[in-house]
């Protein structure tokens, strides 16, 4: 079995199932001859924010939503998109972020917007904007999580201890270099409540990534949502990479910058090229995606993806990286086959997946494009009702990761037993 990280959180007492709305039609489960959607999915490929917002609203309208979450490319005029979404959804909680590729009801897409809605019958949410990532502390996290849980207890949709029926979701500025500190603080405060999320992208321009909350977009910020549900769910994180023999020792870094200046006491880019049999002029985002590195912690391998090569032959990474660590060269074991296995196992455990909230690394997307896997991966994502985006980093509990397929699989609410 390839290295993976898995957290299983299943509700043991579930409210009656009433239905699932997806795309332009409903998958419905009858209860007392009534129908109501539990979750909804939507997407639009129009870059006109007026048209896109209307198409998203129309597809989600049948769901009596307590919240809407969206992911959009940076080609949209973001201020106008904000106004249109606010106009359509009114008082409904709406959060989101910019992306580096989207996963819509049609599958893998670029230059589009994807979204999902959670119904108020089966979900209750509390949302917070964290504006100053630089000063966010464990004390701030304790106060924030405590207050949000207290509010959720007043309107829980689940039976039993609320902590057993909750998960946290984070969307963070993907260029903030603060993900590790923020999610670690939140994870400590959440204790046994699982935390999952993704770092916003900007279509690989690496200039400006933004999150959306309270009717507008923000840079250098994060959105944290705590979700209480009567549905079964499973939080997961996997990668499809296997280790090779070659190693690199990080011998010099630029502190706090995610920049490695030297491997093995040599210029980082040159050593990276050496172990991969590459020329310096060949280095690109696609090449980094196809030639990943990982650090071993215990018996797990965690990917440390490279963002770019710099003029001084240093390498900028997507995750924090320190001097002294040893990186292992990794190789794909088959992205499509591994993802199919993961999704099939999730479906076996949950019965049905009515919504899969996915955070799929931009380097996985690069491999999909390079190997012409877009149609086959899109088919997998469609079959498992996935909505998501290609990220600059993925979060699971207190870890900030790269090159993973991470998310939350949500099962259909169960019918009441007679």
Give a structural overview.
By secondary structure, the chain is of the alpha+beta class. The protein has two domains: 4-238 and 336-410, no CATH class; 241-332, Elongation Factor Tu (Ef-tu), domain 3. 24% of the residues lie in helices and 37% in strands. The chain has helices at 49-60, 78-89, 138-153, 179-190, 268-276, 285-290, 335-350, 362-370, 374-383; strands spanning 4-9, 20-22, 25-27, 39-44, 65-72, 93-98, 102-104, 107-109, 113-119, 123-130, 166-172, 195-199, 211-213, 216-218, 222-229, 233-238, 241-254, 259-263, 266-267, 293-297, 300-303, 306-309, 315-317, 326-332, 355-361, 386-391, 394-396, 399-401, 405-410. Strands 17, 18, 19, 20, 21, 22, 23 and 24 form an eight-stranded antiparallel β-sheet that branches. Helix 1 (49-60) runs parallel beside helix 2 (78-89) and helix 3 (138-153) crosses helix 4 (179-190). The chain is globular. Mean pLDDT is 89; it is low at 1-34.
Topology:
Blueprint: E1 4-9, E2 20-22, E3 25-27, E4 39-44, H1 49-60, E5 65-72, H2 78-89, E6 93-98, E7 102-104, E8 107-109, E9 113-119, E10 123-130, H3 138-153, E11 166-172, H4 179-190, E12 195-199, E13 211-213, E14 216-218, E15 222-229, E16 233-238, E17 241-254, E18 259-263, E19 266-267, H5 268-276, H6 285-290, E20 293-297, E21 300-303, E22 306-309, E23 315-317, E24 326-332, H7 335-350, E25 355-361, H8 362-370, H9 374-383, E26 386-391, E27 394-396, E28 399-401, E29 405-410
Parallel strand pairs: 5-6, 11-12, 25-26
Antiparallel strand pairs: 1-16, 2-3, 4-9, 5-9, 6-13, 7-8, 7-26, 10-15, 11-15, 12-27, 13-14, 16-29, 17-18, 17-24, 18-19, 18-23, 20-21, 20-24, 22-23, 25-29, 27-28
């Amino acid at each position: 079995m390839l290295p993976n990280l898995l957290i299983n959180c299943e509700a043991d007492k579930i409210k009656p199932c009433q239905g699932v709305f997806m795309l332009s039609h409903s998958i419905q489960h009858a209860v007392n001859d009534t129908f109501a959607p539990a979750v909804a999915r939507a997407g639009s490929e129009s870059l006109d924010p007026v048209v896109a917002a209307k198409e998203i609203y129309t597809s989600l309208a049948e769901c009596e939503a307590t919240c809407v979450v969206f992911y959009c490319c940076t080609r949209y005029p973001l201020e106008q998109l904000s106004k249109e979404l606010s106009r359509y959804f009114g008082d409904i909680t709406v959060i989101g972020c910019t992306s580096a590729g989207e996963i819509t009801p049609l599958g893998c897409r670029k230059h589009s917007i994807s979204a999902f809605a959670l119904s108020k019958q089966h979900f209750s949410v509390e949302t917070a904007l964290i504006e100053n990532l630089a000063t966010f502390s464990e004390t701030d996290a304790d106060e924030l999580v405590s207050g949000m849980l207290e509010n959720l207890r007043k309107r829980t949709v689940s039976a039993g201890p609320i902590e057993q029926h909750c998960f946290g979701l984070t969307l963070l500025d993907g260029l903030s270099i603060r993900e590790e500190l923020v999610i670690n603080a939140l994870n400590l405060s959440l204790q046994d409540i699982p935390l999952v999320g993704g770092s916003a992208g900007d279509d690989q321009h690496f200039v400006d990534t933004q999150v959306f909350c309270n009717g507008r977009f923000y840079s250098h910020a994060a959105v944290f949502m705590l979700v209480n549900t009567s549905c079964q769910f499973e939080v997961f994180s996997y990668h499809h990479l296997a280790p090779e023999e070659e190693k690199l020792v990080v011998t010099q870094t630029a502190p706090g910058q995610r920049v490695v200046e030297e491997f093995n006491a040599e210029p980082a880019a040159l050593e990276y090229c050496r172990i991969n049999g590459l020329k310096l002029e060949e280095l690109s985002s696609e090449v980094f995606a196809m030639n990943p590195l990982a650090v071993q912690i215990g018996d797990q391998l965690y990917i440390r993806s490279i963002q770019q090569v710099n003029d001084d032959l240093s390498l900028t990474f997507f995750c924090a990286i320190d001097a002294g660590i040893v990186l292992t060269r990794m190789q794909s074991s088959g992205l499509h086959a591994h993802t199919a296995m993961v999704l099939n196992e999730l479906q076996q455990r949950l019965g049905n997946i009515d919504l899969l909230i996915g955070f799929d690394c931009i380097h996985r997307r690069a491999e999909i494009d390079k190997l012409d896997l877009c149609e086959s991966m899109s088919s997998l994502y469609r079959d498992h009702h996935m909505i998501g985006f290609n990220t600059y980093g993925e979060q699971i509990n207190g870890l900030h990761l790269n090159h993973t397929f991470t998310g939350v699989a949500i099962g259909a609410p169960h019918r009441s037993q007679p």
